[in-house]
Amino acid sequence: MKRPGREAVKAVAAPGTVASAAGATASARPRLPARLRAAFDRAPRDTRDTLLLLAVIAFTTAPHLAHLPPWCSALTAGVLAWRATIALGNRALPGRWAMWVLLLLTGGLTLWTERTLLGREAGVTMLVALLALKTLELRARRDALVVFFLGFFLLLTQFLYSQSLLTGLWMLLALWGLLSALVLAHMPVGRPTLRQAAAVAARATALGLPLMALLFALFPRIGPLWGLPQDAAGKTGLSGTLRLGGVAELANDDAIAFRLRFFGPRPLDRQLYFRGPVLATTDGREWTRLVPTVAPAQRTRAELQTRGEPLRYEMTIEPGRLSVLPLLETTPEQPGSAPQLEGWLFNLRPDLQWQADRPLAERIRIEASAWLDFRHGPREPGPGLADFMRLPPNAHPRLRAWAAALRQQAELQRADAAALSQAVLQHIRNGGFTYTLEPGSYEGTDAIDAFWFDRKLGFCEHFAAAYVVAMRALDVPARIVTGYQGMDGAPQDGYWIVRQSNAHAWAEYWTAGSGWVRVDPTAAVSPERVQAGRSLAPAQGLVAGALYSLDPALAASLRDAWEAMNNRWNQWVLNYSRSQQFDLMRSLGFGTPSWQDLATLMIGTLCGLALAGAAWAWWDRHRQDPWLRLARRVAERLQRLGVPVLPHEPPRTRAQRVRQRLGAGGEALARELEALDRLRYAEATAARTVRRTWWPGFAATAKRTLRAA
Predict the structure, then answer these.
(1) Cβ-contact 387, 294 below 8 angstroms
(2) Minimal CB count within 10 Å: which of 228, 289, 408, 481?
(3) Distances (CA, A) of 613 to 9, 202, 219, 407, 609
(4) At what angle do helices 120-134 and 45-61 cross, to 10 degrees?
């Protein structure tokens, strides 16, 4: 019997050796991303370039998915996946009948969902679908150029929906990808790497940046940058109505409502009331703006009186769904104080609401002046005050009974409105109420009664609404004011931040001799909310909550840095206005700039740049590839000798032609050409050196050969 070898004995003695070897083999195997990258690099160039183009199209289309009908998103994803499968399998493209079916299907579905083939929504839907369908016709470079054109146009359409900094960065990356694919399409020879194409695209983009900046600075401004509603219009902010729990939901939104810059001392936190919609009509569940029941001549008037010095401030308001400016209380309607913005009309209502002529669907920047010490409203009773005392029949019976009992107290039977207000606030202070962002639902009950007597859990709108109901039950005119109160504790990039989480509701009651008096019932149970101007912290999302739990300081600094970048984007780009253009021209020496000066400056600068570009191109034409110029000069000398020369031939081929044409008489000239061939393909030989050392000898030899011939 044959004995096992030494290696077999070792393997039996150490069974883990085989497993270790297998593990070593597995560990040596490339990981999945590396294998995919290797497969991508090994793919034929047409396949690789097509897959790159499809990936760029998907990246460019991705931001539109939130605005597209579901069928368009599904069709686009399916067509791109189908085209990728065709490229990977080297299969034939679909026939024209299939393309016609898909085209008719796209048009029919667009007409069905949008009810038209015109307009922004229908146009973007068709553009995305047609861009995807065009990839199924990539048979020639002409088809690829159409795809690139549609891709660049699709980039611009994204700014119809949003002009945020994040959108700009996303579109910049998409532009880089499209330019890289375009560069590859214009490099048909060989197999250029993606890195090489991306570098060329990046350089082209960098060369275009100065011209882009010039056009941005000097192109006439007719309105906002793109002139269309954008960003968060209609999605956030005060709603103009109030239902218990609505402000608490808004306070969970940490988005920025507006930014402030004061041209003077910063006000105290308790003075920071930004007035929004004033609500005075209720059906027992919801509060809305006043529907007057008296003639216009009998309605209450503003009768605003200001005291002290004004405070000048600048406000950049984010897009919202209302047409009310949340200005600092109080901003009067007088020259130099009232907000003004070209293309807009602002009006101060009798209840001190600043009304715009249209919803604030775009970001605007205004300057105004506010007087923090003021009085407003009629000083004497009038018929219009009855509108602020109405309560729905049979609503809030328990609170009405409580108010009647309160009024029967001896010390309050002859009390004025101010004393009655203090009595109501005293009940809030001592009644066991809790200020919370999560008061729960009051649906199915009389919400005011349930809050006042049973649960006693509420946010600012609960306290403001219950206070106003109590005052009206005491026969005192009262109303709810919504808006914002307070702001962040520290400025960002020179601007103070007021967030949606600073949304607030307070109240006003009317008293003879003083008019409307502000009172904040929330301060009775949570004085720090008003004194420090800090709202309850909203619940964090999953990622933000985890980051805040790990390092709150880092999370706060990251948020502040991002918001500061957004602010600079808003101030320097989105809010770059006509007045800033004229300020730029004044700094350039124009005393009283006009549109004609702006057009002259822009056209003159563009012409100067065009001339500079032409001069550079002329110089670059003579600078690039001096070997070609040398070859032309050599060819001219050889043609004088009757030697046939082709443009693509190297010097050694021309040397053979010299020997064939001139024989022994051209041997010296042929050796010169062979020397040039060696110099041309040496590792480091400059054309300038060849012109100085080789060319004189060649020219002399050619001259002697010509004389001999």
Answers:
(1) yes
(2) 408
(3) 80, 19, 21, 86, 6
(4) 170
CA distance 415 to 407: 9
| Cβ proximity of 304 and 332 under 8 Å | yes
Q: Which long-range contacts (CB under 8 A, 24 or more apart) does 40-49 make?
A: 43/88, 44/90, 45/191, 46/87, 47/87, 47/88, 47/90, 48/194, 49/181, 49/184, 49/185
Cα(37)–Cα(51) distance, rounded to whole angstroms? 12
The SS3 assignment for 433 reads coil
Contact 483, 396 (CB under 8 A): no
CB 350 within 8 A of CB 275: no
What phi, psi does 454 have (nearest 5°)?
-105, -75
pLDDT confidence of 36, banded at 50, 70, 90? low
Digit-coded pLDDT (tens) for 401-446: 999 999 898 888 888 999 999 999 999 999 899 988 778 778 777 8
C-alpha 534, offset from chain centre: 28
Number of H helices, E strands in the chain: 25, 19
Whole-Å CA distances, 184 to 50, 60, 177, 194, 268: 10, 18, 11, 8, 61
Using CA atoms, how far apart are residues 120 and 131, in angstroms rounded to an integer?
16
Mean pLDDT of the chain: 79
- Phi-psi domain of 493 (left: phi exceeds 0; alpha: psi -120 through 50; beta: other): left
What lies within 8 Å, CB to CB, of 46 at 6+ separation is 87
> What's the rounded Cα separation, in Å, for the pair 507 and 515?
13
Please give the biggest Cα pair distance in the chain: 138
In 10 A of CB 694, how many CB atoms?
Answer: 17
Written in H, E and C, the secondary structure of 293-353 is CCCHHHCCCCCCEEECCCEEEEEEECCCCCCEECEECCCCCCCCCCCCCCCCCEEECCCCC
List the structure tokens of 53. 């183009």
Tracing tokens 């049979």 back to the chain, one arrives at 394
Residue 504 φ/ψ, nearest 5 degrees: -150, 160
As a residue count, the chain comes to 709
Place of tokens 């008037």: 301
Which amino acid belongs to residue 494?
G
d(CA 205, CA 182): 13
**Element housing 559 (H / E):** helix 552-569
pLDDT confidence bin for 246, thresholds 50/70/90: low
pLDDT in tens, 149-200: 888 888 888 777 777 777 888 888 888 888 888 888 887 766 777 888 888 8
Please state, in angstroms and rounded to a whole number, the distance separating the CA atoms of residues 316 and 334.
21
| Structure token pair of residue 217 | 């600075």
Chain centroid offset of residue 284 CA: 41
Name the pLDDT band for 139 (thresholds 50, 70, 90). confident
Helix locations, 439-483, DSSP H: 447-449, 460-473
- Over residues 493-519, the pLDDT tens digits come to 788 989 888 889 999 999 999 999 999
Q: Helix/strand/coil (H, E, C) string of 451-519?
A: HHHHHCEECHHHHHHHHHHHHHHCCCCEEEEEEEECCCCCCECCEEEEEHHHEEEEEEEEECCCEEEEE
Strands ordered across the beta sheet of 256-262: 364-370, 311-317, 256-262, 496-499
The answer to whether residues 306 and 332 touch, using CB atoms and an 8 Å cutoff, is: yes
Please report where in the chains the tokens 């002046």 appear, as a residue.
369
- Asked if the model's pLDDT at residue 684 lies above 70, the reply is no
Quick check: bond before 330 cis, omega within 30? yes
